[in-house]
Amino acid sequence: MTKPKPKLYFIAIVPGEPVFSEILAFKTEFKDRFNSTAALRSPPHITLHMPFKWNQDKEDELIKPLCTLAGEQQSFKLSLHDFGAFPPRVIFVQVNENTELNKLQQVVQNIAKTKWHIHTPGSGTQRPFRPHMTIAFRDLKKSAFHGAWVEFKERRYVNTFEVKDLCLLKHNGKSWDVMERILLSSM
Predict the structure, then answer these.
(1) Which residues contact 141 (CB under 8 A, 6 or more apart)?
(2) CA torsion 74→79→83→87, rounded to 10°?
(3) Higher confidence at residue 1 or residue 159?
(4) How many CB atoms neighbour CB 96 within 10 A?
(5) pTM strictly above 0.90
(6) How far is residue 41's CA from residue 178's CA, in Å, rounded to a whole number?
(7) 96 and 79 in contact (C-beta within 8 Å)?
(8) Which pLDDT tens digit goes with each residue over 65-100?
(9) Contact at 8 Å (CB) between 157 and 81?
(10) Is there a contact between 92 and 165 (Cβ–Cβ < 8 Å)?
(11) Is residue 93 helix, strand or coil?
């Protein structure tokens, strides 16, 4: 009998409405205007832990520690403002600095390391956490990036939303689905 192939997962914050639809509209604009579709393969989100492989028969081992964390973490507000870029391919909606978000991300990273024994590539150098919501990346051609960035660096976008849950996302072979929403405490 062959061993089941591990699946891809990641942990993120997925905003509710209307922010979800507004960010989705930016992704769709990049598809329509700049032929960039890769960002549409995942829902609008802020990554707390990048994708990793896991045996789907052991998904409960992912969910239980996240449930414990969520029960100890109060919901909080996040503010978004304007756009940023990681040249030469990535354009995103910027997330304002937020202490609760930074703490949440650190706890998720710690759970991944200590409970799941997942070591992120480059984790020895600890890449800084720069929260954002990607609207175009990987397949955005360099020439299209420059044209889009000239426009988007001047465009304004401001919104706030309540972070009410953590999301465990699972790759279905073509795109990412929210597999589990784990509610934060509302004390």
Answers:
(1) 34, 35, 36
(2) -30
(3) 159
(4) 13
(5) yes
(6) 12
(7) yes
(8) 999 999 999 999 999 999 999 999 999 999 999 999
(9) yes
(10) no
(11) strand
Q: Could you check whether the bond before residue 18 is cis, i.e. omega within 30 degrees of 0?
A: yes
With contact defined as beta carbons under 8 Å apart, do 151 and 135 qualify?
no
Token duo for residue 63: 């969910």
Does residue 43 have a pLDDT over 90?
yes
Contact 38, 138 (CB under 8 A): yes
Structure-token pair, residue 82: 């304007």
Quick one: CA dihedral 90, 95, 96, 102, positive or negative? negative
| Rounded Cα distance, 168 and 163, in Å | 14
Question: How far is 184 from 67, CA to CA, in rounded Å?
Answer: 8
Q: Are strands 76-86 and 46-54 parallel, antiparallel or unpaired?
A: unpaired
Give, as one character, the DSSP assignment of residue 11: E
Residue whose token pair is 């100890």: 72
Q: CB–CB of 20/43 below 8 Å?
A: yes
Give the pair of three-digit tokens for residue 33: 């205007």
Say if residue 94 is exposed, middle or buried (CB neighbours under 10 Å; 0-12, 13-18, 19+).
middle
Single-letter amino acid code for the residue at 15: P
pLDDT digit string, tens, across residues 118-160: 976 654 446 789 999 999 999 999 999 999 999 999 999 999 9
